[in-house]
Design goal:
It is a single chain. With 388 residues, the chain is of the alpha/beta class. Helix 1 (17-27) links the parallel strand 1 (8-12) and strand 2 (31-36). Strands 3-2-1-4-5-6 form a six-stranded parallel beta sheet. The chain has a three-stranded antiparallel beta sheet with strand order 7-8-9, covered by helices on one side. Strands 10-11 form a two-stranded antiparallel sheet. It folds into two domains: 8-209 and 337-387, 3-Layer(aba) Sandwich (Rossmann fold), CATH 3.40.50; 228-242 and 247-317, formyl-coa transferase, domain 3 (2-Layer Sandwich), CATH 3.30.1540. It has 17 helices and eleven strands.
Length: 388
């Protein structure tokens, strides 16, 4: 089942935030047409290495562009604009992730495109938004982690501020947030016949990711700070602990799981220790508790502890990237799949995290720049015919 089959999305996009979001919709059946600038060779992500897939393509690019089509248009030229407007007539949405001042300059906002199709939804993904003093500023994921306060919360307390280890978490979350807005607006347009502008920015999303740490701060509470061992800000023990050959993460978010832990590790007397009887005491004495748990957990391997604790309380191994992706459970759930590429028949990609009726769908690489020009632009009426 492809719930978005029949929905056509035109996307002027590059790098990660917009492409990741539209890729999710393409996986759900939307016809996503990636509009690329022929003067610069298309999306710059195509040329971002080090792992290339022939000329003008890369693993980096394909990470965010599966199941799409590609056409080339110069939106600043009269002919390119004419073709774009014809495409808008048959589209449900127009997406861009450009600098905040560019949609108006390129005529991508609803007030302009509604004259062509009143029901079209116009999604704008930018660094800082379109309606403020920073509209003309460029911006990327890591800058948002820095200014959004997230780097101040990441890493060990004794170290410098650090970004998230994952390459593009703000881009990904912004893309997902934007797609919630887009699909919601599409549903509204189906009912009312009227589209709208939808705006999502990287900085807004980064700030929203502060979660309860942000709520505490804006309400005058004690601010969150970096915690040793990636620990929780108010619950203990929720942190990493060393094993004989690695690390695991334990999460005793409730009293029930604390009691399960101390029984499973053979230390039931810890439940009677006044320092650890309930969460406030455990949190206040977390340093002492950490020393005790470290001594216990270093006595067995990661595999042994996982066998003893899995299903008893929330626990997981601390894997590197290769270990995470070769985990037998990842194969069981189908989170890696083949997507044969002309330059690499064995090319593999992450499966969609969304399952419909138990099916994640299949993935096909985005074709070369402009590969779908004949198919898509060839359907358009020549200018002379439209004038006759």
């Amino acid at each position: 089942m492809k719930p978005l089959a029949g929905i056509r999305i035109l996307s002027i996009e590059q790098f990660a935030a917009g492409p990741y979001g539209t890729m999710l919709l393409a996986g759900l059946g939307a016809d996503v047409i990636k509009i690329e600038n022929p003067d610069i060779g298309g999306d710059p992500a195509r040329r971002t290495g080090p792992h290339m897939l022939g000329k003008g393509d890369s693993q980096y690019f394909q990470t965010w562009n599966l199941n799409k089509k590609s056409v080339t248009l110069d939106l600043k030229s009269p002919e390119g604009r004419r073709q774009f407007e014809q495409l808008v007539e048959g589209a449900d949405a127009v997406v861009n992730n450009l600098r905040g001042d560019l949609p108006a300059k390129l005529g991508l906002e609803y007030s302009t495109l509604a004259k062509i199709k009143p029901s079209v939804v116009c999604l704008h993904i930018s660094a800082y938004g379109r309606d403020n003093s920073r509209a003309g500023w460029p911006g990327y994921d890591y800058l948002m982690q820095a200014e959004g306060g997230l780097m101040s919360l990441t890493g060990e307390p004794s170290g410098p501020p650090a970004r998230f280890g994952a390459p593009s978490p703000i881009d990904h979350m912004t893309g997902m947030t934007a797609m919630v807005g887009l699909v919601s607006a599409l549903l509204g347009a189906r009912i009312s016949g009227r589209g709208c502008d939808v705006d999502v920015s990287l900085l807004d999303t980064a700030l929203h990711l502060l979660g309860y740490a942000g709520t505490w701060a804006i309400n005058g509470g004690e601010g969150a700070e970096r915690q040793a061992r990636s620990a929780h800000y108010s619950v203990a023990p929720v942190q990493t602990v060393p094993t004989a050959d690695g690390w695991i993460f334990i999460m005793c978010m409730t009293q029930k799981f604390w009691e399960s832990l101390i029984l499973a590790i053979g230390r039931p007397e810890l439940g009677r220790d006044p320092r650890f009887v309930s969460n406030p005491e455990r949190f206040a004495h977390r340093a002492e508790l950490t020393e005790i748990l470290d001594a216990v957990f270093r006595g067995r391997s990661t595999e042994a502890w996982l066998e003893a604790l899995s299903g008893v309380l929330p626990v997981g191994p601390v894997f590197d990237v290769d270990q995470a992706l070769t985990n037998p459970f990842v194969a069981e759930i189908g989170m890696v799949q083949s997507a044969p590429h002309p330059a690499d028949p064995e090319f593999k990609v992450m499966s969609s995290p969304i399952k419909i009726d138990g099916d994640r769908g299949t993935s096909a690489p985005c074709p070369p720049v402009g590969a779908n020009n004949a198919e898509i632009l060839g359907e358009l009426e020549p200018a002379l015919e439209r004038l006759s």
